[in-house]
């Protein structure tokens, strides 16, 4: 009888502790809920729920002591690396094929890819492509340095984020939750009343939910750390033009301006010819109408001129 009371006392204390920890974490992202789960780590590491005696304090184990700065220094940084490129190209299809080969050579894959413009209804429109590429972290430099061969890079940026603190914090809390799960399973084997069994199973459900959330967080971090992310914006242009900088000489700037003016005139004439080819029938009708109108007007003018001459004669 005394053993059952002791077990009930231990269960009551454990449920109160779990309720205080679980209520702050349910429905939240495990990666961001460091404060709430940390309290559960302190509780579970500070007490040993025995089966035959009262709940007694115990020394926290090495895995349950929390995460201090020394842990991160010893384990090393956990870097999430990202980079972006804005690229212009005169040969859009060839550049896309080159990008596909580069991704394959680096052992990566396309996470997303989209192209807009250049449709059947607007054949003269330039195309825009946006690609999100995942490349193994060890091939980051290879892909970054080779991206310049795809076209003319107008803009590039890169960033890295050390998620080591959050990673090791989630890892430590996951160990704590698994230790708690083992203790609950041991208590469940000792339970002999339906009330205790139901309460333990509910507590196990909460702990398993926390384990799933923390495992998902670690898996997401592992994916971001092991594969770097590249975002590539690809623009199709008629001609790649490298602007002359302000530090260039006056002659260089004037030459570049004159060259751009000539190229603009030629490009405008070409666009006009293309427009005329698309609207040839309309242009023929307008020219014919203008010719008929001009001929009729000329005849009317000559007739009026003759009448005026006859009136002036004696």
UniProtKB/TrEMBL annotation:
Pfam families reported for this sequence: DUF4349
Domain of life of the source: Bacteria
InterPro entries to which the protein is assigned, alphabetical: DUF4349
Domain DUF4349: 78-291
Keyword Membrane assigned: yes
Transmembrane segments: 272-298
Protein name, as recorded: DUF4349 domain-containing protein
Organism this protein belongs to: Flintibacter hominis
């Amino acid at each position: 009888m005394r053993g059952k009371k002791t077990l009930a006392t231990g269960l009551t204390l454990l449920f109160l502790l779990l309720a205080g920890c679980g209520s702050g974490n349910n429905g939240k992202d495990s990666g961001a809920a460091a404060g709430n789960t940390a309290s559960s780590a302190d509780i579970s590491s500070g007490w040993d729920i025995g089966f035959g005696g009262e709940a007694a304090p115990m020394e926290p184990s090495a895995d349950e002591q929390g995460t201090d700065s020394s842990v991160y220094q010893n384990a090393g940084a956990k870097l999430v690396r990202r980079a972006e490129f804005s690229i212009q190209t005169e040969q859009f299809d060839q550049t896309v094929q080159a990008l596909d080969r580069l991704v394959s050579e680096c052992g990566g894959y396309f996470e997303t890819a989209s192209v807009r413009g250049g449709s059947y209804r607007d054949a003269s429109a330039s195309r825009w492509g946006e690609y999100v590429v995942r490349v193994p972290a060890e091939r980051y430099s290879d892909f970054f340095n080779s991206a310049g061969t795809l076209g003319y890079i107008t803009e590039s940026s890169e960033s890295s984020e050390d998620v080591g603190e959050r990673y090791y914090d989630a890892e430590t809390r996951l160990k704590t939750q698994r230790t708690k799960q083992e203790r609950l399973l041991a208590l469940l084997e000792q339970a002999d009343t339906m009330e205790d069994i139901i309460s333990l199973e509910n507590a196990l459900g909460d702990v398993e939910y926390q384990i799933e959330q923390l495992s998902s967080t670690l898996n997401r971090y592992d994916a971001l750390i092991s594969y770097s992310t590249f975002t590539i914006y690809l623009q199709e242009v008629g001609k790649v033009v490298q602007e002359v900088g302000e530090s260039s000489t006056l002659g260089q700037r004037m030459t570049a301006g004159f060259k751009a003016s000539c190229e603009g005139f030629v490009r405008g004439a070409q666009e006009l010819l293309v427009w005329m080819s698309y609207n040839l029938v309309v242009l023929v009708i307008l020219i014919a109408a203008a010719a008929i109108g001009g001929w009729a007007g000329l005849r009317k003018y000559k007739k009026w001129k003759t009448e005026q001459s006859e009136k002036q004669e004696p």
